[in-house]
Sequence to fold (362 residues):
Amino acid sequence: MRSSSPLGVSQRPLNAKRIRVARLRRGLSQNELARLLGVTEPTVQKYEAHSAPHTVRPALGALLSFPDGFFSRGDPVQLNVSSPALRPGRKTTHQQRSLAIAAATLYMDVNEWIDTRFSLPRLDVPDLAGLLPAEAARELRSAWGLGSDPIPNLVRLAELRGIRINGLPMAAAAVKSFSHWHNDRPYILLARASTPEATRFDLARELGHLVLHRHSGAPSGASHEVQATLFAREFLLPSNVLAQQLNHNPSTEEILETKQIWSVAALTLTHVARDIGYMTVWSYRSVSSELTHLGYRTGEPEGMPGYERSRLFPFVLESTRYGTLTGTRIAQELDLPPAEVHIAMLGAEHQLQPPESEDPDR
Fold:
């Protein structure tokens, strides 16, 4: 919320928690920020434990690229994040994980700004803990009335069921995705740095975490990740339908034709075909090798034309209830850099512009 202090920005107390969030969002350690400010590391630690003097405000704003007013707002939302994607591992660094959480914290300001002004879909995310991943996927499809048909836009489906989807900055791309709950509302963060098919699968995997692991506490090793992956496969590729569509030991051409129907990666479809017993080891290796040779290991040739788009954020920006709304205006009201609002809203402002003016750097 915007500070109600009658003092000018330059005289308001600096919020220690906001200093910390801004530092982490820029991927800096306390020692690195101290060197940039020309102070000692214990001094920065004091800033983040208590506060900083008013004289530091301009330097903090300039070095961290945040409006001066950001540092005087109320406490940021405290996230309860226990996603397996954020546990220490080989593929992400502590800095990347901290940056991702800091970004998600900032984006909660955007989400709450929207929540206070618009009526949003009610929550419809069942707790399916205790079911096997594939059973949970089939149960969720049934609960949401999806049958066994391909899902056209998973982002919009999730939004319609009360799940909030935000982007992640490129600096946190290695995290790929993670999810969390706040005040009984689920949130999913997507990096959208890989192919649209891979990002769609990441979203399906986070849905698995939401319905399977909401009350599980800290992630138990890799088991939650495996369960969420199995959920995503069955949710996007119902095995009973796939068994009817594929021939035994499908050719590479058949895999490529079928993956277009379901909007999944060719290699993902190949893995699933093997796992449901429709490919021998030799056939699986042969098709996988050919797909790798064709470039499907590092990309998705002739894949989806773009990332699945939000409906919620364009709806907000198109509304005239509060005058002309833009990402820049929302950023100004929240004392955030406009780029943060752009990422949080999945680049929605560009969706409202002609295709030729879209910014490819999201």
Observations:
- The first strand starts at residue 164 and ends at 167.
- The longest helix spans residues 94-115.
- Confidence is low (pLDDT under 50) at residues 1-6, 354-362.
- The beta strands are 164-167, 177-182, 185-190.
